[in-house]
Structures are given as structure tokens and as C-alpha cells.
Design a protein that fits this description.
The chain is of the alpha+beta class and about 350 residues long. It contains 6 helices and 18 strands.
Amino acid sequence: MSVRTRPHPEQQAENNVTKADLDWANLDFGYHQTDYNIRYTWRNGAWDAGVLTRDESIPLHIAATCLHYGQECFEGLKAFETRRGDVVAFRPDENAKRLIRSCKKILMEPVPEPLFMAAMERVVNANRHYVPPYGTGASLYIRPLVIGTGPQVGVKPATEYMFVILVTPVGPYFKTGFKPVDLVVEEEVDRAAPLGVGDVKVGGNYAAGIRATMAAKQRGFTEVLYLDAREKKYLDESGPANFFGVTQDGQYVTPASPSILPSITNKSLLTLAEEMGMRPVQRPVAVDEIFEFAEAGCCGTAAVITPVGSITFRDRKVVYSKDGRAGRLTTELYQRLRAIQLGDAPDKYGWVYKIPPPKE
Ligand SMILES: *Cc1c(COP(=O)(O)O)cnc(C)c1O
């Protein structure tokens, strides 16, 4: 596929885009090159107009605060092609607001919500032919990030920031179907402290947890389930996703904790669970409650829901799925959310944001 001859995306009407020549249904959840990313610089008290670029690298000062003191935060959301052929993003205003909270918590310059939305529209439109076709199960993953780029040797916030959005087409998360995974309760490693930065989406939280995840994988588990760092008694969340359980009488229960990242998927599932009569509740959940649940799942943008087949805690293992299939209510929650995202069910709550094609 030749990209050279294509006109600049912002001078081009793309109502009838030709799709990129990719094997959509077999894409993995990894980085695939697209045509453009977008980047904005904050300098002398203002964000610039931003630029779409084909350059996949960022020139950085060797003393940039993102390199030394972890001034970095990010977001993750997806764009889909709907049944009607529209390109939509799922609750992007929520990601914009969360990115502001993340920036503020680690003293970075926040990206105003209108700038976030405009940047997302520009970069999706510039890569519109990478939005996977409806029905393939694939999507365009959108990854915004903010980094401190100004040099600082003493521990101080940077005086310059960069806001970048890259996009990459990703395949269906469950290639082999909606299959339950095995979790293990983590007792040796804390992801985040109660008064730390666990409630914002900063890269440092992932650095803190990566050794726990890799050790769990070596032992044959898919992910860890973290406990609260203070008492080691209550459930927090999984590595990159929130956790929920379904009680024997069908109630949706998800942990409340100051060190959990508030998931937009979980927030949406709480609404759908209410609709389904599941009496959803967000409260501290003692680790022993895992032995009482009928179903369990992890939730986040990447997979929407990952059904949990078993959880191992010390020398005990609770099995939710004996036949390799997800629970009934977990499956229904998943199907309801996916249907809204793809335009197959009415968007009652205004969650689906249409990205209009660029004007001529
Ligand atoms: C991003 C993230 C989630 C999922 O949030 P969504 O908004 O649903 O994608 C959950 N936990 C952690 C730690 C995260 O970073």
C-alpha cells in the first residue's frame, strides 16, 4: 500500500475511505504502524496548534522529567465502525476527564477536554482507513499520553509538556472466543499505596506491578489480583483491569478502594447491571468473598470483560467455570456493552460519540 501519494488528511474528504489491506480478524493486540500520530506542545503557558506527523519517534531532552521522575500518564480508548458505517468512540469525554485528573495529580499541565476531543478526531480522521470494518471484531485503539519534556535535574515539575495520541488497529481480544482466565491473589507485591497514585493512569503504576504479572504468568496464571496495600484484606483490582464478582443471588459487586483506577468500562457495567436488575454495589470486598461468588470478571477497554474461570488464593482455588465457559450474567453484561459500542443496540445513555469525517 502506497502512502506517499495520498494528500494531507486534513485537505481530504474521507466519506468513502478505502480500508487498509489488513487481515483484521487476525490482528493481535499490539502496535501496528498507521499513517499519522498527533502531538501538541505546551510551552510558555500555552498548548500549540498540534501537528499530525508520520514520525514514530519523539525527540527528547536527556533531562526530561518523564525520563527521570516519571512525569507520564496515559489513556486508552477505542474507535469502532458501527453497523451503519459511522466511526464512533466509546465515552471519550470520560477519558478526557480522567487524563486531566492524572495530569493534575502528578503536577503536569492538564490537556483541556476540548483539545483532547479535537486531537482525537484529527488523528482518527487522518487514519480513517485503519478503523477496522464492522463485524470483524477488531477496533482502532487510541492511546493518548502526556509527558514532561522540559529538562529538570532537581525534583520539580517540568516547564514543558507534550501531549501525543497514537492509534493502532487491534484485533478482537478473544480470538478463540470469550474464554475464562485464571487469576492468582498477589500477596508479595503492591501495585499502589492507599495515598499514592493508584487512582490515576500513570505509567509508574505499571512499572510497580510488572514483576508481579510476569511471575504470575510463569506460574501459569493470566494475571494477578491485588489486595489493598494497608491491610492485605480487601480486593483492589487486577493488573490492567478492574474486578467484579457476581453473587449467588445475582448481585454485581465491585471493590471500592482509594488505590483502584476508576475504570470507564466498570462504570458502564454498573449502569447496565442496574438495568439487568443485578442491584450493583461498589464497596470494600474482603478477599474471602471470592469463595462465595458465582461468577467473576475483569473489565477494561481492551477486552471489555475478561471472564474469570478461577482464582487461586494461597493453597485454595475457587473455580467459577467448570466447562470452560463464562457465566451467564457475565456473558450478558459483555454482550450488552458490545452491542451499544457497535450500534447494534440503542445508545440510551449517550455513550457513543460519532467522529464526523473531515470537511472538505
Ligand atoms: C486503564 C485501566 C483500567 C481499565 O479502565 P477502562 O477505562 O475501563 O479502560 C483498569 N485498571 C487499571 C490499572 C488501568 O490502568
